Structures are given as C-alpha cells and as structure tokens.
Amino acid sequence: MIVRLLEWLFLTIAPCDAAEPWQLGFQDAATPMMQGIIDLHHDIFFFLILILVFVLRILVRALWHFHYKKNPIPQRIVHGTTIEILWTIFPSIILMFIAIPSFALLYSMDEVVVDPAITIKAIGHQWYWTYEYSDYNSSDEQSLIFDSYMIPEDDLELGQLRLLEVDNRVVVPAKTHLRIIVTSADVLHSWAVPSLGVKCDAVPGRLNQISISVQREGVYYGQCSEICGTNHAFIVVEAVPRKDYGSRVSNQLIPQTGGA
Amino acid sequence: MAEAQSDKTPSLAEDYLLEKEKQDVATKPVEVKEVESAVTASSVEGATDKVEETPAAAAVEESKEDAPAPAPEESTEASSASPEDSTSDTAPAAAEESSETTEEENSGDQEASEETPEIKLETAPADFRFPTTNQTRHCFTRYIEYHRCVAAKGEGAPECDKFAKYYRALCPSDWIEKWNEQRENGTFPGPL
C-alpha cells in the first residue's frame, strides 16, 4: 500500500543500479564521483528553483498589474541605476556559487590520486565490448581477454533486464582503485555506467583513462553512449565488483596459462 | 581464445548460485595453484629487486649506465645483428631518451603494493609524465622503454621486467601484436 503510494507520488521507485521505466532521478551512487555529481545537481537545483520562483513572480505580477484593461498606459521608467547594479551583481554572485563547486568536481574527477591497483582495458567493437586483464601475464599473449555480448531479448531468463544483461560481465574488486583504459577498434563508442558516474569515449587509436573506486558490491548496468551503428542500443556494460575478485580472476587465468 | 574462454567463465546461472553451492565449485582450482604461485613468485622477485634499490644506489647505477649508453647499445646491436637493430637508432635520440629512463626508474620505486589475495593486485603506477585522460603515449613510451632496456641490458634482464609489466597493463593486446610485427619487419615507428 505504502509502496503504491510512493510509486504514485514519485512515478517510480528507482532500483539500485539499473535504469527503470519512467525513472526521473539518478541511480544510486556507488562511487565518490557519482555522489559528487548528485550533490552538485542538488546544489544547482537550489539556485535553479530560487530563480524560477523569482522570475515567475515577476512575470505574473507584470501580467496582472499591467493588464491592458486595468492599466492601459504603463509606467514609463527609462533608467534606474540602483536596479541596474543590483541585477548585474546578484546574478554574477549566483553564477559564482554554481561555478566553483562545478569546477572543483570536474577537476577532481579526472585526477589520479593514488596508484591504481588494477588496470582493465575496455575495447569497443561493433557491437560488443572486449575486456582485457593484463596485469598478471608474463608474456605478450597470455592476457585474460573476453568478449561481452548483450543477451538478446529471446534468450532472457526470468528476472533478467532487457537490453542490459550481458553474457560475460566484467568483474572488478570493490573498494579498490581501478584504472579503466577505454579504446575502440572500429568507430567511436562510449563506455558508460551511470551508478559509477562514468562515461568515457572510446576513440580508435587513443587510450582514455578513467580511475574509479567502487564502494560497494553489486551489479552495475550501463550502455554505450555514442551512436556507433545499427546495433548501438545493444551494446551493454555490466560491471560486477566483488570481494573474491582475486580468486575469480586466477580461476579464469590459470587454466589458460597452464594450457598455453 | 573466445571459445576457450567461454567454458571457463561462469554462466549466469552459476553466477546466481548461493554461496554454499559455490564452495565446491571453488575447491577445484586448488591443484592448479602451484602454477599460479610460480607465476606470482616471478613477479615477487621483480618487486623485491625494486625494493632493494635505494634511490642512491639507483642513481649510481643510472649514472653508470647512462654515460656510455649510446655507444655499447649500438655496438651490441650491430654485433648481434638482432632483428631490432634495423630501426633508425641515432645517437642523439638515444641520449635524449636515456634521461627519460632515469626519471622513469625513480618513479617505479615508489610503487605501493596493496592487499595480497591469491593474485597480487598490482599494475602500472600513475605516471606524472602523463597526467591527463589520454594515456596513448603512456603505453607507447612504456613499450619503447622496455625494448630499449632489453637492447641495453640483454634479453631477460630482470630490470626490464617491470617495463614489460607496465606496457602489458596499459596497451591493448592488438597494439602490442602489431608493434611486435613491425619490429620484426623493421618498420616500427618509434625510437628503439
């Protein structure tokens, strides 16, 4: 009952880390970066609503008091120095209050504070992602490489999310500093996960780096964010931070290196 | 590789298994662990090497190797007639690069090792020559540094291992493959 009421009030109740039909707000933050983005959004919205209310008030007041029947000849003020100064200074102060936290967040987001513990390479293809873990190999050929395709709608099992589920998820450790190197093998793609506050263009011939630290375990969904061809909608990012990252990666890596 | 991979990665159904059921899946890799410990052992060796070098010692070593660097490098290359020597390796370029390697080795020392589960969580450190989002040159430079190191100190020199680790961590395997091919054909565009 309460859930229905809340649902009616807010149109939706956002699930943790995946998009929801008619969702208006953000997905829950899982990195300090996303938390910062949400906070900035709320900060700016404070000013936004203040300005909105103020402008609407002026607008309605003007329409009301200077109605052509009620007041056919409006007052003829040509110049007022005080008001001119006020409406120049005041907006610039507001802009400053918006700009300072915005730049602070922007620059802190691409700052690499500590040495990352692992590097994962995400390589965009038409239309799938290839992931490479190469921190543990002892030759050029032994990297742990796998492709990550979206599960087509017909193959979905009950409870899986349409257009969001992939066959091979990228597994990362939680609460660890990660370096993700994003590049592409054909056209422009963009590796994006909303809950992690990450959106990074994949450009062929260029390596873009993002550093993130996922704060909690879970499954995070995202989609390609650059129009990259007919199957653009079917290229999906799915990240799984886990505690047992080490054992999982070595389980996958060792049979390979042993066989090679 | 994709097919070999597919039976190793757990399916979605396996992913949703309860922890208890997962235990017996997890017991399997125990017998394989020896292989893995050998792998980590080699990387640990590399790490201890790094720790032993105090900055002063590193500096001494650097000064030793830097001063005569261009000459022996070229002589070894010329005598061995290895496939790498075909690139345009001019003396000024080599001298210019050697200053870069000093800076490089020092930054490599301050590498923090994090928690150690079964595998060692360790990768190329942040490099302040490449502070921006664009890391293309970072990867390329590490690749060149490794091959210059090998050219100077000989194949399999333990000092060069960390450069190999760095460039493998940073570069996509397609690029490495392409560059290796280019080196073999003598068409590699960088200063080796």
From TrEMBL, chain A:
Pfam families: COX2, COX2_TM. It is found in: Mitochondrion inner membrane; Mitochondrion membrane. Residues 18-113 form the Cytochrome oxidase subunit II transmembrane region profile domain. It catalyses: 4 Fe(II)-[cytochrome c] + O2 + 8 H(+)(in) = 4 Fe(III)-[cytochrome c] + 2 H2O + 4 H(+)(out). It comes from the Eukaryota. GO terms for cellular component: catalytic complex; mitochondrial inner membrane; transmembrane transporter complex. Keywords: Copper, Electron transport, Membrane, Metal-binding, Mitochondrion, Mitochondrion inner membrane, Respiratory chain, Signal, Translocase, Transmembrane, Transmembrane helix, Transport. Its main location: mitochondrion. Its cofactor is Cu cation. It is a multi-pass membrane protein. The chain crosses the membrane at residues 44-64, 85-107. Residues 1-18 form the signal peptide. Residues 115-251 form the Cytochrome oxidase subunit II copper A binding domain. GO terms for biological process: ATP synthesis coupled electron transport. InterPro entries: CcO_II, CcO_II-like_C, CcO_II_C, Cupredoxin, Cyt_c_oxidase_su2, Cyt_c_oxidase_su2_TM_dom, Cyt_c_oxidase_su2_TM_sf. Binds a copper A center. GO terms for molecular function: copper ion binding; cytochrome-c oxidase activity; oxidoreductase activity. Belongs to the cytochrome c oxidase subunit 2 family. Component of the cytochrome c oxidase, the last enzyme in the mitochondrial electron transport chain which drives oxidative phosphorylation. The respiratory chain contains 3 multisubunit complexes succinate dehydrogenase (complex II, CII), ubiquinol-cytochrome c oxidoreductase (cytochrome b-c1 complex, complex III, CIII) and cytochrome c oxidase (complex IV, CIV), that cooperate to transfer electrons derived from NADH and succinate to molecular oxygen, creating an electrochemical gradient over the inner membrane that drives transmembrane transport and the ATP synthase. This is Cytochrome c oxidase subunit 2. It comes from Citrus maxima. The gene is cox2.
UniProtKB/TrEMBL annotation, chain B:
The keyword Mitochondrion applies. It holds the Pfam family COX6B. Its main location: mitochondrion. InterPro entries: COX6B-like, CX6/COA6-like_sf, Cyt_c_oxidase_su6B. SUPFAM superfamilies: Cytochrome c oxidase subunit h. It is found in: Mitochondrion. Residues 77-96 have a biased composition (Low complexity). Residues 17-36 have a biased composition (Basic and acidic residues). Residues 1-128 are annotated as: Disordered. CDD domains: Cyt_c_Oxidase_VIb (cd00926). Keywords: Disulfide bond, Mitochondrion. GO terms for cellular component: mitochondrion; respiratory chain complex IV. This is Cytochrome c oxidase subunit. It comes from Citrus unshiu (Satsuma mandarin).
